[in-house]
Amino acid sequence: MKKLIFIVITVLFIISSVNAQVKILTLKESMEIGFRNSKDLIISNSKVIGSGARIDETSSQMLPQLKFSAGYTRLSEISPFVVTLPFYSKPIELAPVFLDNYTFRVSVQQPLFTGFRLSSLKNAAEFNRDAAEEDMVKDKNELAMNIEISFWNFYKMKLLKNLFDEEVKQAERHVEDTKNFLKNGMATQNDLLKLQVQYSNVRLQQIDAQNNLDLARASFNKTIGLPMVNETDIDTTRIQIIENKYNLRELVAEARSNRSELRSLNLRIEASNENLDAARSGWFPNVSLTGNWYMSKPNQRLQPPVDIFKGTWDVGISLSWDIWDWGNRQAQSQEAEQTLIQTRTSYDQVKDAVELEVNQNYMALIYDGEKLQVSRESIEQAEENYRSIQDKYNVQLATSTDLIDAENSLLQARTNYMNATIDYQLGKAKLEKAIGRAIYKF
Hints:
- The chain has nine helices and eight strands.
- The protein is an alpha+beta fold.
- The relative contact order is 0.13.
C-alpha cells in the first residue's frame, strides 16, 4: 500500500513538474518578455544615451575651462652674469644662476565668440539625440511587429494541428463505421480501402502539422528572446478579431506626421543645418577671455630672481583668426552642404516609401476582409454539406467517395477560414505600424 502511494505521489509530482515547465503567454506578456530580452533595443537605448552625452560634451565647451600644469627644468651650468666697477675690485653678480626651475600654472579660458560654432554644435547634438529617440520608437514598433507575427503564426499552427487532430479522429470513426457496414453487407471492400487511404493521408497531414507547430514555437521563442527548446504556449482567449473601416487619405496623412522614420530624418535635417553653420564658423574669428596664475621658482618676472616660490598672475583677451588655410574651411562647408542634401533626399525617399507601404497594407487589408467574409460563408456551406452527406452515408445513400469529398471540402473551408482570420488580424497590425501607431500596448 505504501509503495502504491509512493508511486502515485511520484507520478503526480512528475506531471506537475511537466505542466510547470509549459509557460502560457498572452500577446502582451510575449511583448514584455521580448522587449526585456531584445539586443536591438539595448543598442538603440545605448545610442540615445550616447547622443545625450554628446550634448553634455558640446555644452561643456561653452563654459570656462580650468587647467593646471606643472613643470620642472634642469639647466646646464653657466657662469653668472657679473659686472666689474673701476673703483671696486671684486666683480658684482647681477643675475645669479639657478639650475633647478619649478613652475606651477593655473589657467582659465572662457570662449566669448566662436563664430556660432559651439551653439550650432550643441543644437545639432540635441536634434541628433531626439532623432535617436525616434529611431528607438521605430525599433520598438518593428520588434513588436515581429513578435506579433510569430505569435499569430504560432497560433495558426496550433489551430491547424487541432484541426488535423479532429480530422484524424473523424476519419478513424468513418473507418470503424465502414467496417461494421462491411460486416453487414452494407458496404464494399473498396469503400473501406478508400476510407483507410483517407485516414492515412490525414495522419500524414497531422504529422506535418505537428512539425510545423514545433517550428513555429521555436521561432516564437527566439523572437521573444527565450531558448528555442522551451515549452511555451500562447493564450488567445482575450483576443477578439474586430473588422475595422479605414479611410486611405486619412491614413496617409497620419503616417506623414506619425512615422518615426520621417520624424527622425526631419530632426537630422535640422541637425545638418546646424552642422553647416558650425562648419561655416571657421570664417569668423575666435575671441576668448583668459587668465593665468603662476607659482614659479624662480619667478622670471621678479628681478633680480630669487630661489624661492613666488606667485604672479595675468588676465587678457585673445583673438585668433585663420586668414589662410588652403581651402580647409571651404571643404568643410561643402561637405556639410552635401550631407544636408543627402538627408533631405533620404527624407523624400522614405516619405514616398511610407505612402506606398500604407497604400499596400490598406489594399491588402481590404482583400483580407473580403476573404474573411467569403471563407465565413464557405465554412457554413461546407459544414451543412458534410452533415448532409454523413447522414446519407450512415444509411448508405451516399458513397465513400462522396463522404471523402465532403470531408476534404470541410477541411479546406476550415483551413481557409483560419488563415483568413489570422491574416486579417496581422493585416490590421501591419497597417497600424505603417501609419506610425504603436502596436505595443504597455
